[in-house]
From TrEMBL:
GO terms for molecular function: NAD binding; NADP binding; oxidoreductase activity. This is Putative dehydrogenase. Residues 7-159 form the 6-phosphogluconate dehydrogenase NADP-binding domain. The lineage of its organism: Bacteria, Pseudomonadati, Pseudomonadota, Alphaproteobacteria, Hyphomicrobiales. Residues 170-285 form the 3-hydroxyisobutyrate dehydrogenase-like NAD-binding domain. It comes from Azorhizobium caulinodans (strain ATCC 43989 / DSM 5975 / JCM 20966 / LMG 6465 / NBRC 14845 / NCIMB 13405 / ORS 571). The active site is at residue 172. Gene3D superfamilies: N-(1-d-carboxylethyl)-l-norvaline Dehydrogenase, domain 2, NAD(P)-binding Rossmann-like Domain. InterPro entries: 6-PGluconate_DH-like_C_sf, 6PGD_dom2, 6PGDH_NADP-bd, HIBADH-like_NADP-bd, HIBADH-related, HIBADH-related_NP60_sf, NAD(P)-bd_dom_sf. Keywords: NAD, Oxidoreductase.
Amino acid sequence: MTETLTLGWIGLGKMGLPISTRLAAAGYDIAGTDRDQERISEAAASGVKPAATLADAATRDIVFTSLPDDKALRAVALDGPLFQSMRKGTILVETSTVSPGISAEVAQAADARGIAYLRAPVSGNAAIAHTGNLTCFVSGPKAAFDTFLPVAQAFTRAQKYLGTAEEARYAKLAVNLMIAVSAAMMGESIVLARKGNLAWQDILDVLTNSAVGSPMVHYKAKSLETRDFNSTFSCRQMAKDLDLIVGAGHAADMAMPLATLTREVYGALIGRGEGEADFISTVRLAEWLAGLGEPDLEQNEGRLA
């Protein structure tokens, strides 16, 4: 193992907090910082050393960033003290979902400072981050990936190296596009079945036990059994990612009809006040558009498959 590597973590939010504390539990010397002092205190209670400033966290061998969007990454990496504080020859691992464009700018700045930059967006959500069952897609210098891999294995179940440039960014956007469109389809499918007088649990059973029963369908069907719309990944977050997806497609001279339409679905959910609800709230939007109220969850009690 490579616990002798020192780690710095910038951004102790929904994903950064559970990942950094998992690394601390694995025996790594890790220091973390966040704009929210309560987050730093929470991380410290689980073994992450408090870093007084971003610059303090950035002095480590491998520095991670876990940030909400392009604007935040620009503020930290390009307009902030990150690269001035990092030592030549160290590694920056950026785990967020951001655009290929801003990522390429960070790569150029890192190269100018002699810093190896890995794009390593994680796939999964905050509910499972503490379990080590995330996956990550990685691109950047291969030697840096080889150094990073044992650390990645402490908080992910699978790691895929994809190339030397922005390949990992496109991989993450491609995955999230499939998830977003699938959620929109799932909402309409369930409501169509309700219009055909299928009981709530029956249509969920049909979807999970048919050819479309993907891991995502199984996962979301489980929460839909009780109509649990508490957020694992919010409608607002999905809208942000769809903006990145459409932007990346347009920058590549690619038409994005499904992504664009699905973005409107999430815009409607945000407009209805459901921005912080789970992204599978597409079901509730489809019900509203169809003039349906809440289903009877007891309708097929006693005859579940």
